[in-house]
Amino acid sequence: MSRRVASQSIGIVGCSAEGAALCYRTICAEGEAAFGPHGHPEVMLHGHSPADYVACLNAGDWAGIGALMLSSAEKLAAAGAAFLICPDNTIHQAMPWVQPRSPLPWLSIAEVVAAEAERRGYRCLGITGTRWLTASEIYPQALAARGLDHRRPSEAEQAEIGRLIMDELVRGLVTPEALASCRGVITRLAEAGCDAVILGCTELPLLLDDRNSPLPTLDSTRLLAQAALRRACAP
User: Whole-model pTM?
Assistant: First the structure.
C-alpha cells in the first residue's frame, strides 16, 4: 500500500518524447522514497508536436515557442497542476516571454542545476546540449549568479552534438559512435579547466552518465525531476 503524503500536483510541459518520458519516469521512481512502494505525487504531462517547436527554433521565433509553452501551461493548470516544469533546456530561452503570462509558477532547470553544482563544490562547468542551448546565456547566467565559471564546446563541436541530439537521441537512438564523439568533447572541456559537465539536453543522459563520462555529470533532467518532487512535498 502506498502511504498518503500531502503533495502538490506536478505539471510537465513536454517537448521531446524521450526527455519528457525520462523526467516522468524519474518522478515516479524516486517518488517512492516519500510515498512508499509504487507511490508518487500526481503528475500530468502535455506536449505539442516537437515539429512545431523545431520550426520556431529554426526561425528564431521565441515568442512562438513561448506561445506553445503557454498553451501547455494553460491545459495543465486547468487539469489541476500546482506548478510547472519543462525538461527541455533549449526552450527555456522563451521563459522571459512565458513567465509574465503563465497561469502557474515554474521551476527553472538552469537554476536547479546551478544550485546543485554549487552544492557539490564545482567551480567551472562545461555546457553541452543543442546548438541553440550551448550558444545561449541560459546556463552562463545561472552559473554566474552563484559565482561559477563555464566553458562551451567549440562551434564545430556544438554543431556535432546538436546533430547527434536532433537526428539520433530524440529518436532514442544511442550508438557507440555518438558516445565516443561526446566523450571527446567532454575531454577537451576538462583540458580547458572544467571540473564537471552539464548534460544540458534532456536526451544526453540516455548516452552519458558518471560511469562513462570523462568528467562528473550534472544530469539536468533528473535534477529537475528531483527538485519537482521536493517542491511537490513542501509544506
Answer: 0.91
